[in-house]
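DM from R.C. (forwarded with permission)

"hey, sorry to bug you on a friday — could you get me a structure for this? deadline for the figure draft is monday and I only need the backbone to look sensible"
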Amino acid sequence: MYIPKNKISTNLVAKQDEYIDSSGAYYNGFYYKIYTGQTFMGKFPGDGINREIFLAPPKTTEDAPPPLPIQSLTTSTTPPLYPTEQDYKNGMFDRYFSKKRNEYLFEELTKSQYDALNNPKNLMFTLYQPFSIKWMLTGEKQKVADFNFYSIRNAEEKEGVLGLNEFLKMNYLQYYK
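My reply, with the result:
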């Protein structure tokens, strides 16, 4: 795949424990970033093995990046959505959200709100981007936190909804039992 040079930032240097590779090992060294936001090992494309690297989850909330200015879409009085007992038996559940397409405005939705908004014929579909994530509820605490971190990270990258992590206050153990 050809990527124009003006769409690549090269010679970037990863800070200590800032990035991990697909095996979960920390990566320290040169990397480059392409226009999609993806980052790869090496100073530039073609420099050695250009495996993709990912931002490492913060070790503590003190290590977390400063939050983006996040707001809610509405001042809804709807109570927060909670997992059911069946969700806890399954070990996970789906969470539904929307993001205003041109701002950092997020809202957590019910399944029916998500389904209604996810219809391209709905006028609100042009203003808000609906998306969902898998959320782990049970298991080993660190594995649950890691799974939920990567679920958020995956949505931010694949759906283009940067700021979801901050909207959820980096609480990777929300609803954990």
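R.C.: lifesaver. The longest strand covers residues 92-100.
me: no worries. Confidence is low (pLDDT under 50) at residues 67-79.
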